[in-house]
Write a structure and sequence with these properties.
285 residues, alpha/beta, three-stranded antiparallel β-sheet, 31% helix, binds fructose -6-phosphate
Protein backbone atom coordinates (compact mmCIF):
# COMPACT_ATOMS: atom_id res chain seq x y z
CA UNK A 1 0.00 0.00 0.00
CA UNK A 2 1.16 3.53 -0.73
CA UNK A 3 -0.20 6.60 1.04
CA UNK A 4 -0.16 9.92 -0.80
CA UNK A 5 -1.00 13.05 1.14
CA UNK A 6 -2.12 16.16 -0.72
CA UNK A 7 -2.72 19.56 0.81
CA UNK A 8 -6.50 19.67 0.29
CA UNK A 9 -9.48 17.78 -1.06
CA UNK A 10 -9.26 19.50 -4.42
CA UNK A 11 -5.61 18.52 -5.06
CA UNK A 12 -6.23 14.96 -3.84
CA UNK A 13 -9.17 14.52 -6.24
CA UNK A 14 -7.19 16.09 -9.07
CA UNK A 15 -4.35 13.61 -8.53
CA UNK A 16 -6.81 10.70 -8.64
CA UNK A 17 -8.39 12.05 -11.85
CA UNK A 18 -4.94 12.36 -13.42
CA UNK A 19 -4.07 8.75 -12.54
CA UNK A 20 -7.35 7.54 -14.07
CA UNK A 21 -6.66 9.63 -17.19
CA UNK A 22 -3.18 8.18 -17.54
CA UNK A 23 -4.47 4.61 -17.25
CA UNK A 24 -7.26 5.31 -19.74
CA UNK A 25 -4.86 6.81 -22.26
CA UNK A 26 -2.52 3.83 -21.90
CA UNK A 27 -5.43 1.41 -22.34
CA UNK A 28 -8.57 2.85 -23.98
CA UNK A 29 -10.40 -0.42 -23.24
CA UNK A 30 -9.78 -0.02 -19.53
CA UNK A 31 -12.25 -1.72 -17.19
CA UNK A 32 -12.86 0.92 -14.58
CA UNK A 33 -14.44 0.26 -11.20
CA UNK A 34 -16.34 3.31 -9.98
CA UNK A 35 -17.62 4.57 -6.64
CA UNK A 36 -20.24 7.14 -5.71
CA UNK A 37 -20.56 9.52 -2.74
CA UNK A 38 -19.59 13.07 -1.98
CA UNK A 39 -15.83 12.49 -2.21
CA UNK A 40 -16.09 11.22 -5.79
CA UNK A 41 -18.05 14.20 -7.09
CA UNK A 42 -14.87 16.28 -7.30
CA UNK A 43 -13.03 13.48 -9.15
CA UNK A 44 -15.84 13.26 -11.69
CA UNK A 45 -15.81 17.03 -12.23
CA UNK A 46 -12.12 16.77 -13.03
CA UNK A 47 -12.68 13.84 -15.42
CA UNK A 48 -15.37 15.83 -17.23
CA UNK A 49 -12.90 18.70 -17.50
CA UNK A 50 -10.19 16.38 -18.89
CA UNK A 51 -12.65 15.02 -21.44
CA UNK A 52 -13.62 18.46 -22.71
CA UNK A 53 -10.29 20.23 -22.44
CA UNK A 54 -7.86 17.43 -23.30
CA UNK A 55 -10.03 15.03 -25.27
CA UNK A 56 -9.91 12.23 -22.70
CA UNK A 57 -11.73 9.43 -24.50
CA UNK A 58 -14.15 7.17 -22.64
CA UNK A 59 -15.72 5.60 -25.72
CA UNK A 60 -14.11 2.19 -25.43
CA UNK A 61 -13.84 1.79 -21.67
CA UNK A 62 -16.15 -0.36 -19.54
CA UNK A 63 -17.31 0.70 -16.11
CA UNK A 64 -18.59 -1.27 -13.12
CA UNK A 65 -19.92 0.50 -10.06
CA UNK A 66 -19.42 -0.90 -6.61
CA UNK A 67 -22.99 -0.80 -5.40
CA UNK A 68 -26.65 0.14 -5.73
CA UNK A 69 -29.48 0.53 -3.24
CA UNK A 70 -32.08 -2.23 -3.21
CA UNK A 71 -35.46 -1.05 -4.57
CA UNK A 72 -34.19 2.15 -6.17
CA UNK A 73 -34.47 2.42 -9.95
CA UNK A 74 -32.41 4.51 -12.38
CA UNK A 75 -34.89 7.40 -12.34
CA UNK A 76 -34.75 7.79 -8.59
CA UNK A 77 -32.41 10.75 -7.87
CA UNK A 78 -30.97 8.81 -4.91
CA UNK A 79 -30.04 5.76 -6.95
CA UNK A 80 -26.42 5.33 -7.83
CA UNK A 81 -27.29 4.88 -11.53
CA UNK A 82 -28.84 8.35 -11.43
CA UNK A 83 -25.77 9.70 -9.59
CA UNK A 84 -23.40 8.29 -12.24
CA UNK A 85 -25.46 9.62 -15.13
CA UNK A 86 -25.67 13.01 -13.46
CA UNK A 87 -22.04 13.42 -12.36
CA UNK A 88 -20.14 11.66 -15.11
CA UNK A 89 -21.77 9.62 -17.85
CA UNK A 90 -23.90 12.33 -19.49
CA UNK A 91 -20.91 14.69 -19.66
CA UNK A 92 -18.43 12.35 -21.40
CA UNK A 93 -18.44 10.10 -24.46
CA UNK A 94 -18.86 6.85 -22.58
CA UNK A 95 -21.02 4.21 -24.29
CA UNK A 96 -23.90 3.71 -21.82
CA UNK A 97 -24.12 0.05 -22.86
CA UNK A 98 -20.67 -0.40 -21.39
CA UNK A 99 -21.59 1.15 -18.03
CA UNK A 100 -22.75 -1.27 -15.36
CA UNK A 101 -24.33 -1.03 -11.94
CA UNK A 102 -26.15 -3.75 -10.03
CA UNK A 103 -29.90 -3.61 -10.67
CA UNK A 104 -31.54 -2.65 -7.38
CA UNK A 105 -34.97 -3.47 -8.83
CA UNK A 106 -34.12 -7.04 -9.82
CA UNK A 107 -36.80 -9.55 -8.73
CA UNK A 108 -34.21 -12.15 -7.85
CA UNK A 109 -31.48 -10.22 -6.04
CA UNK A 110 -29.20 -13.21 -5.51
CA UNK A 111 -29.33 -14.04 -9.22
CA UNK A 112 -28.59 -10.38 -9.97
CA UNK A 113 -25.48 -10.57 -7.75
CA UNK A 114 -24.23 -13.70 -9.51
CA UNK A 115 -24.90 -12.09 -12.87
CA UNK A 116 -22.91 -8.99 -11.87
CA UNK A 117 -19.90 -11.12 -10.93
CA UNK A 118 -20.20 -12.95 -14.26
CA UNK A 119 -20.32 -9.64 -16.17
CA UNK A 120 -17.14 -8.43 -14.48
CA UNK A 121 -15.44 -11.69 -15.32
CA UNK A 122 -16.62 -11.52 -18.94
CA UNK A 123 -15.14 -8.03 -19.24
CA UNK A 124 -11.78 -9.50 -18.17
CA UNK A 125 -11.83 -8.26 -14.55
CA UNK A 126 -11.43 -4.74 -13.21
CA UNK A 127 -8.21 -2.94 -14.16
CA UNK A 128 -8.55 0.05 -11.87
CA UNK A 129 -11.00 0.27 -8.97
CA UNK A 130 -11.81 3.62 -7.40
CA UNK A 131 -12.89 3.54 -3.73
CA UNK A 132 -14.09 5.87 -1.03
CA UNK A 133 -14.32 4.92 2.63
CA UNK A 134 -17.36 5.21 4.85
CA UNK A 135 -17.49 6.11 8.55
CA UNK A 136 -17.80 2.42 9.39
CA UNK A 137 -14.65 1.65 7.40
CA UNK A 138 -16.70 0.18 4.58
CA UNK A 139 -15.51 -0.02 0.99
CA UNK A 140 -18.46 -0.39 -1.34
CA UNK A 141 -21.16 -1.23 1.19
CA UNK A 142 -19.09 -3.88 2.92
CA UNK A 143 -20.17 -3.03 6.44
CA UNK A 144 -18.37 -4.27 9.57
CA UNK A 145 -17.93 -8.06 9.69
CA UNK A 146 -18.06 -8.43 5.92
CA UNK A 147 -15.94 -11.46 5.16
CA UNK A 148 -12.68 -10.79 3.37
CA UNK A 149 -13.76 -13.64 1.07
CA UNK A 150 -17.17 -12.07 0.29
CA UNK A 151 -18.39 -11.63 -3.29
CA UNK A 152 -21.19 -9.44 -4.70
CA UNK A 153 -24.26 -9.83 -2.51
CA UNK A 154 -27.06 -8.02 -0.71
CA UNK A 155 -25.90 -6.37 2.48
CA UNK A 156 -27.85 -4.64 5.25
CA UNK A 157 -26.57 -1.12 5.86
CA UNK A 158 -25.11 -0.22 9.25
CA UNK A 159 -26.86 2.47 11.33
CA UNK A 160 -23.78 4.74 10.95
CA UNK A 161 -24.11 4.49 7.16
CA UNK A 162 -27.81 5.38 7.37
CA UNK A 163 -26.70 8.44 9.36
CA UNK A 164 -23.92 9.25 6.87
CA UNK A 165 -26.15 9.10 3.76
CA UNK A 166 -29.58 9.77 5.27
CA UNK A 167 -29.46 13.48 4.49
CA UNK A 168 -30.00 12.79 0.78
CA UNK A 169 -33.23 10.96 1.57
CA UNK A 170 -34.70 13.46 4.00
CA UNK A 171 -33.62 11.42 7.03
CA UNK A 172 -32.05 8.00 7.78
CA UNK A 173 -35.49 6.48 8.40
CA UNK A 174 -36.41 7.07 4.74
CA UNK A 175 -33.35 5.29 3.35
CA UNK A 176 -33.30 1.81 1.86
CA UNK A 177 -32.02 -0.61 4.48
CA UNK A 178 -30.11 -2.81 2.03
CA UNK A 179 -27.84 -2.52 -0.96
CA UNK A 180 -26.21 -4.78 -3.51
CA UNK A 181 -22.45 -4.42 -3.17
CA UNK A 182 -19.36 -5.97 -4.68
CA UNK A 183 -17.78 -8.13 -1.99
CA UNK A 184 -14.41 -7.47 -0.36
CA UNK A 185 -12.82 -10.25 -2.40
CA UNK A 186 -14.44 -8.94 -5.59
CA UNK A 187 -12.77 -5.58 -4.90
CA UNK A 188 -9.42 -7.18 -4.03
CA UNK A 189 -9.47 -9.03 -7.36
CA UNK A 190 -9.01 -5.67 -9.15
CA UNK A 191 -5.57 -5.22 -10.69
CA UNK A 192 -5.09 -1.78 -9.21
CA UNK A 193 -6.95 0.11 -6.48
CA UNK A 194 -7.09 3.79 -5.53
CA UNK A 195 -8.89 4.83 -2.39
CA UNK A 196 -9.61 8.52 -1.93
CA UNK A 197 -10.61 10.09 1.39
CA UNK A 198 -10.91 13.71 2.41
CA UNK A 199 -11.91 15.67 5.48
CA UNK A 200 -11.24 15.35 9.18
CA UNK A 201 -14.29 13.21 9.87
CA UNK A 202 -12.52 10.41 7.96
CA UNK A 203 -9.22 10.72 9.90
CA UNK A 204 -10.00 8.09 12.56
CA UNK A 205 -11.24 5.40 10.23
CA UNK A 206 -8.45 6.07 7.70
CA UNK A 207 -5.81 5.58 10.43
CA UNK A 208 -7.48 2.32 11.50
CA UNK A 209 -7.61 1.06 7.90
CA UNK A 210 -4.00 1.91 7.07
CA UNK A 211 -2.09 1.50 10.31
CA UNK A 212 -4.42 -0.75 12.28
CA UNK A 213 -4.66 -4.54 12.22
CA UNK A 214 -6.42 -6.46 9.47
CA UNK A 215 -9.96 -6.86 10.67
CA UNK A 216 -13.33 -7.49 9.09
CA UNK A 217 -14.67 -4.81 11.46
CA UNK A 218 -12.95 -2.32 9.10
CA UNK A 219 -13.35 -3.65 5.56
CA UNK A 220 -10.87 -1.12 4.19
CA UNK A 221 -8.08 -2.71 6.28
CA UNK A 222 -8.25 -5.62 3.78
CA UNK A 223 -6.58 -3.29 1.26
CA UNK A 224 -3.30 -3.85 3.12
CA UNK A 225 -3.29 -7.26 1.41
CA UNK A 226 -3.59 -5.83 -2.10
CA UNK A 227 -0.35 -5.74 -4.12
CA UNK A 228 -1.15 -2.46 -5.88
CA UNK A 229 -3.22 -0.14 -3.74
CA UNK A 230 -2.74 3.61 -3.40
CA UNK A 231 -4.53 5.65 -0.77
CA UNK A 232 -4.82 9.33 -1.64
CA UNK A 233 -5.69 11.65 1.25
CA UNK A 234 -5.93 15.32 2.02
CA UNK A 235 -4.10 16.63 5.10
CA UNK A 236 -7.29 16.49 7.18
CA UNK A 237 -8.04 12.83 6.43
CA UNK A 238 -4.35 12.00 7.10
CA UNK A 239 -4.53 13.79 10.46
CA UNK A 240 -4.41 10.68 12.69
CA UNK A 241 -1.67 8.76 10.83
CA UNK A 242 1.53 8.23 12.80
CA UNK A 243 3.92 7.61 9.87
CA UNK A 244 3.14 10.60 7.61
CA UNK A 245 6.78 11.56 7.06
CA UNK A 246 7.58 8.04 5.89
CA UNK A 247 4.67 8.11 3.39
CA UNK A 248 5.79 11.50 2.06
CA UNK A 249 9.34 10.21 1.67
CA UNK A 250 8.15 7.22 -0.38
CA UNK A 251 5.99 9.43 -2.61
CA UNK A 252 8.91 11.82 -3.21
CA UNK A 253 11.33 9.00 -4.04
CA UNK A 254 9.23 6.58 -6.04
CA UNK A 255 9.93 7.04 -9.79
CA UNK A 256 6.42 5.81 -10.70
CA UNK A 257 4.98 8.93 -9.01
CA UNK A 258 7.46 11.40 -10.55
CA UNK A 259 4.98 12.89 -13.00
CA UNK A 260 2.47 13.48 -10.18
CA UNK A 261 4.80 15.13 -7.70
CA UNK A 262 4.08 18.56 -9.12
CA UNK A 263 0.33 18.04 -8.64
CA UNK A 264 -0.60 21.62 -7.98
CA UNK A 265 -3.80 23.48 -7.49
CA UNK A 266 -2.97 25.88 -10.34
CA UNK A 267 -3.02 23.04 -12.81
CA UNK A 268 -6.45 21.85 -11.74
CA UNK A 269 -9.65 23.25 -13.21
CA UNK A 270 -11.33 25.75 -10.94
CA UNK A 271 -13.72 24.10 -8.56
CA UNK A 272 -16.54 26.31 -7.37
CA UNK A 273 -18.70 23.36 -6.34
CA UNK A 274 -20.79 23.30 -9.51
CA UNK A 275 -20.56 21.01 -12.52
CA UNK A 276 -18.61 22.47 -15.43
CA UNK A 277 -21.02 24.03 -17.87
CA UNK A 278 -20.36 22.01 -20.96
CA UNK A 279 -22.87 21.09 -23.58
CA UNK A 280 -23.97 17.50 -23.20
CA UNK A 281 -22.82 15.56 -26.25
CA UNK A 282 -25.01 13.00 -27.94
CA UNK A 283 -23.39 9.62 -28.25
CA UNK A 284 -22.43 8.28 -31.63
CA UNK A 285 -22.80 4.53 -31.69
C1 LIG B 1 -20.32 4.42 -2.73
C2 LIG B 1 -19.49 3.61 -1.85
C3 LIG B 1 -19.14 4.06 -0.45
C4 LIG B 1 -18.60 5.48 -0.37
C5 LIG B 1 -18.33 5.86 1.08
C6 LIG B 1 -17.84 7.29 1.23
O1 LIG B 1 -20.43 3.81 -4.00
O2 LIG B 1 -19.11 2.58 -2.27
O3 LIG B 1 -18.20 3.14 0.07
O4 LIG B 1 -17.43 5.59 -1.13
O5 LIG B 1 -19.50 5.69 1.85
O6 LIG B 1 -18.86 8.18 0.88
P1 LIG B 1 -18.63 9.76 0.92
O7 LIG B 1 -17.67 10.08 -0.16
O8 LIG B 1 -20.00 10.34 0.61
O9 LIG B 1 -18.12 10.10 2.27
Amino acid sequence: MEVIIQRDEHSAAWLVARVIARELRANPRLVLGLATGKTMEVVYRHLVHLHHEQGLDFSRCHTFNLDEYVALGPDDPNSYRYYMNHHLFRHVNVDRNKTHLPDGLARDLDAQCRQYEALIEKAGGIDLQLLGIGRTGHIGFNEPLSAFKSRTRVKALAPATLEQNGGHFGGPEKMPRRAITMGVETILDSRRIILLAAGKNKADVVAKAIEGPLTSMISASSLQMHPRCSVVLDEAAAGKLTQKEYYRWIFANEPAWKEFQDNSREEAPSDDGSLPRYKVKTLKR
